[in-house]
Amino acid sequence: MARRKICVVTGSRAEYGLLYWVLRGIEAAPDLELQIAVTGMHLSPEFGLTYRVIEQDGFRLDARVEMLLSSDTAVGSAKSMGLGLIGFADAWAQLRPDIVVLLGDRYEMLAAAASAMMARIPIAHLHGGESTEGAIDESVRHAITKMAQLHFVATEQYRRRVIQLGEQPDRIYLVGGLGVDVLLRLNLLSRAELERSLDFRLGKRNLLITFHPATLEERAARVQFAELLTALAALPDTHFIFTLPNADTESRSISAMIAEFVAAHPSVSRVFTSLGQLRYLSCMRHCDGVVGNSSSGLIEAPTLHKGTVNIGDRQRGRLRASSVIDCEPTAAAIAVGLRRLYSSEFLAELGRTVNPYGEGGASDKIVAILRTVSLDGILKKRFNDVPFD
Fold it and tell me: Considering the entire predicted model, what is its pTM?
């Protein structure tokens, strides 16, 4: 019997890290054939050509879909989606997978999903049903849900939301968060190992800073990030590890501001284009908290019992643990959040943090379902009407 071909699409460093154990599981399954299609930031020199990391991990890349234009404007992003549609159409014709696996909500995944739908290839969507009201990702995520046939969700609330979107309950699988799974399976670096890897000495206090544009707020990214830098500059005895933002509208403005801040504070700050999953999560382990608006502060940080200062609306609507401190994108509000992060009351509660995204095991569950789920008649979806109250 021919092995079932599973093509996993990845477009960014963070996404690949979350997918790593799913890829390993598919690769090890005797009845599955792994295909990997890379796109987006993986193929961009500006973002570190991170497809090389995937190859260094021993994976074979079956398709490279160039789509990212050298632009951080809305026009550039829309044109990139068009290039992605063309590129993925060719990839599906060449690879002919039985299932396409897509994680999350970026516009690269929307291009992959739309082209797979037109090629009549079933889509398995990971981390659907979530809500991030401050970003275009919100609409993209739900659109991919409607194009997908199989749904792997992180929490019961997200399972119910996918049902609310009209999907059949027996095609929705509650598996937990992939970020939690990765954390529990990685051997994180010690403090000394991390310092050697980063070529950067940690200080008395340390913060991990990851800030992305809130893509539904026009021209807000630069203003909000300036407020964050003002709050950070006022902190005494604190070292900062910055990661660059994703390829979104206004991302270059943020990157330039980070470079300027690091240049002005060279002894206490460093910026990295791509830390990779091991170093990023090791930074999270050895820093006092995560600051910015990345989903990692809500999904992974609680498992490490680390606090998060979550700024603005980008993650509004997403489930969060008690370790998350929400604040408005002003220097004054961020300063209040940072003081709470270091307060004895908050620190005493951190040890009792419960992560709403589960206790691991998501990768194995996903692979097991990909191996056994019937694909007979799966393309013809029946809308699941939810009764009104």
Answer: 0.90
